[in-house]
Amino acid sequence: MSYRACGRSGVRLPAISLGLWHNFGGVDTFENVRAMLRRAFDFGITHFDLANNYGPPPGSAEENFGRALNLDLRAWRDEIIISTKAGYYMWPGPYGDGGSRKYLLASLDQSLRRMVLDYVDVFCSHRPDPDAPVEETMSALDHAVRSGKALYAGISNYDPDQTAAAVAILGSLGTPCLIHQMKYSMFVRRPEEGLFNRLQAAGIGAIAFSPLAQGLLTGRYLDGIPADSRAAKPDTFLKRRDVTEGRLKPVRLLNKIARRRGQSLAQMALAWVLRQPVMASALVGASRVEQIEECVAALNNIDFTDSELERIDEILGA
Ligand code: NDP
Whose C-alpha lies nearest to ligand 1, atom 23? Predict the structure, then answer.
């Protein structure tokens, strides 16, 4: 594993981080959850990303993570970065969603209980809340850090202007923003239009979520929709209707470039995300140990020639 500076902080993150959004919940097989976490850590994946609502059911990914940590990894707590977030709907009533101090701090306490932790390493505002003053949301992150329940603060899904406002407030409170989690992949390039420059200038690390476009930027769907894939499962954000021939056409062309580079498409997709200087880590998901192994091996070749990048842009219509 290689480790990258996270902005101007003293923290280095593994170039590949593992997220527990899917396949780590109460509906999944615990022994598989446990095996993936162990294998990831053995590879040097020291950063695990969670959120209060990951499951299903919501909260169960944190419970499973706490259980697996206890069984296998507790002795290495000081070698592990655990991040969690709050910002999306978690419980009924007016205090279980959004960006209020009430919600964020209650949610962090619940996350710590589920994971059986004294502190998380990073606590993030999962999304901006237009109905809550950003000062209130940031003051909740600052409080989480000052109370010792989180070591660092982060944000996710904030646009460039929202990021600038949040970062300025956190800075004025004396709790710098460590990280910004954004959706970024060959299929989602919006952060290139301003966000990356802002983060670079502010010294904040970027971490790209869904760098494989939830599996589309892999070989997973080249021959149809496998029964055990995300697109075949109910209640996911990748639907069968998203796996169209129109979507797969560029995937097939990209796959050819990856093969010529001596890697799989998944590996090239990760290398492509990591080519951004501001990128501290590519945050992948996985449903089995072998996928984690394949993703980590992407690091054997993360350099691109100019002509490869040009051809990729051409395929993506950029
Ligand atoms: P990816 O784009 O990495 O998609 C992961 C999926 O791709 C896997 O579940 C698997 O699909 C497939 N896959 C992974 N590796 C391989 C491989 N080597 N070969 C073939 N297929 C592969 O990321 P996610 O969408 O899962 O997001 C990653 C993490 O980012 C989340 O777990 C979460 O922590 C974070 N996140 C944060 C968000 C935010 O708002 N801050 C939003 C979304 C995610 P299959 O299951 O079909 O096998």
Answer: 210
For residues 131-143, give the mean pLDDT: 98
Q: Cα(132) to centroid of ligand 1, in Å? A: 30
The region that residue 225 occupies, defined by phi over 0 for left and psi between -120 and 50 for alpha, beta otherwise, is beta
Task: Name the strand (E) or helix (H) holding 83.
Answer: strand 81-86
Mean per-residue pLDDT, 289-308:
98
Tell me, using a 6 A CB cutoff, whether residue 140 lines ligand 1: no
Q: Would residue 22 count as lying in a domain?
A: yes
Whether 230 is covered by a domain: the verdict is no
43 belongs to a structural domain: yes
Q: Tell me what pLDDT residue 53 has.
A: 98
- What number of CA atoms fall less than 13 Å from residue 86's CA on the CB side? 29
Tell me whether residue 175 is in a domain: yes
Question: Ligand 1 atom 3: the closest Cα is on which residue?
Answer: 284
Is the C-beta atom of 156 inside 6 A of ligand 1?
yes
Check which CATH number belongs to the domain holding 157 and give it. Answer: 3.20.20.100
| Number of domains forming the structure of the chain | 1
Q: Look up residue 34 and give its DSSP letter.
A: H
What are the angstrom distances between the C-alpha of 288 and each of 41, 66, 118, 291?
14, 19, 29, 6
What is this structure's pTM?
Answer: 0.97
How many angstroms is it from 213 CA to the middle of ligand 1? 7
| pLDDT higher than 90, residue 235 | no
Question: What is the extent of the structural domain holding 65?
Answer: 3-216+263-302
